[in-house]
C-alpha cells in the first residue's frame, strides 16, 4: 500500500492539525520515498521528511531532488549550516548553497542545460548501494538534473557520516549518498539519478527493493 503525504503539509507550524496528520502518515509507513521534482513548492516539507526519517531510523530513499533535500537537511541539522539550501531556490545567494548550478552549464539559457540520459556511476565497494546492485562497482542509470552537491562541503559531510558512495567517472560529481554505520540507521540512501526509469512491472530497480 502506498501512502501519499503532501510535503507542503509538513511545513505547517508545530501543533497544526495538518502537520500532525502528516506525521502520523509517516509513522504508519515502513519506509519513506522522497521523489524527484522541480520548483520550490513543498521543498521544506521534503527536507522535513528526510530529517524525520534520519532521526527516527525510518528507511529512506531520496531520488534526484529527494536526494538533494536529504543533503540540505543533513547540512542544516548535523553540520549546523542553518538556512543552507540549493542555488535552485536561492538564485540571489542570500544563503549558503550546499547544492549549486553545475559550473559547465550556462545560467543564461534554459535550453540544453541539463544532464540527461544514461550515465556511468562508480560505486564504493561494499557500500549498501553496491550490494543492492549485486556487488557491482559501476552501474549505468539515467539522469535528469542541472544541480550538483557543492564540493566545498563534501568533506564536512563525509566526516559527519554522510558518505558519497557513488560518483561520476571523473570522481568530481556526487551521485549517491548513504548514512554511515555510526548513525545506526537501517537504510538511508539517496541517488541523483532516476532508477525508476529502468523499473519494470514485477522488476523494480534495486534501490526500491532496498527500501
Automatic annotation (TrEMBL):
One of its GO terms (biological process) is 'de novo' CTP biosynthetic process. GO terms for molecular function: ATP binding; CTP synthase activity; identical protein binding. CDD domains: GATase1_CTP_Synthase (cd01746). InterPro entries: Class_I_gatase-like, CTP_synthase, GATASE, GATase1_CTP_Synthase. Keywords: ATP-binding, Glutamine amidotransferase, Ligase, Nucleotide-binding, Pyrimidine biosynthesis. Pfam families: GATase. It catalyses: UTP + L-glutamine + ATP + H2O = CTP + L-glutamate + ADP + phosphate + 2 H(+). It comes from the Eukaryota. Pathway: Pyrimidine metabolism; CTP biosynthesis via de novo pathway; CTP from UDP: step 2/2. It is an enzyme of class 6 (ligase). The keyword Chloroplast does not apply. Residues 22-208 form the Glutamine amidotransferase domain. Its EC number is 6.3.4.2. The keyword Nucleotide-binding applies. Belongs to the CTP synthase family. This is CTP synthase (glutamine hydrolyzing). It comes from Eutreptiella gymnastica.
